[in-house]
Amino acid sequence: MASFVRAANNVFKQMLDLGINKGQAESEGDSFISQGFTVMIGLTGAWQGWFFLDMSQDTAVKLAGIMTGEEYETVESEEVLLAGAEMGNIICGNAITDINSIHSGLNIRLTPPSVFAGEGMSMFNVRLNACSVILQTDAGTIKLNVVMREAK
Amino acid sequence: MKGLRADGKAIRVMAVDDSPVIRKLIKKALEPEGVAMVGEAGNGRDAVELCFKLSPDIITMDITMPIMDGLEAALAIKQKNPGQKIIMLSAMSDQDIVADAKSRGINHFCSKPFKTEDIMAKILQVINE
Q1: What pTM did the predictor assign?
Q2: Is the Cβ pair B21, A67 closer than 8 Å?
Q3: What is the ipTM of this complex?
């Protein structure tokens, strides 16, 4: 989880000029309720699983606006969805680079991101328990949720 | 402005990334420095075709893209034009990826997230080689 938090800190600072206050990492169980905007990225290789970047729709709109310098009304704007996807991709990519360099031979790779926008969605991992961390930013609350298991 | 060649003309850059947001950010970072963004592509296949039409000074190339990834595209470009300067721009930069890229003759990397000064410095380093 530490690699993901470091990566998020780096991305928020460098791309968005936002500081983050990190909460405690905690076991999430096999599901969580989305805040309204969730980026999902699959992980493949010696370890498999998913990375979720979760936030409210309002936060997603704010972050997209900071990222591109444009103004957006809602998450229905394609650029908001794309900006969210790219944020998730870069955070996850940086974290996995860190993990791959620490644990030689893992060769974990990412799938292209999927973005889900909707109220009250339940994100459910079949038979896997996740770990999550809540990050507080000036744009709102961000959740990092990671589930990984050794590939059989 | 930093984005000029030795002959005083703007450095001509083509941005290749499947994310339109990233292509927009690259443009926003480089154009104020005087760089001329001469083209963009969303996948490796389009990048190869466009590169030979535009002959940019430098291509910034994402790695993970649909249809043809950045490493395949860079290799295809280098096979026809070994002198084409390419900077791989990616969120993933572990040893295996870097080694794979180097085996295809690609020696320049920039990580995402990038700051304007980082990508500009890399462009100036590459253009002056």
Answers
A1: 0.91
A2: yes
A3: 0.86
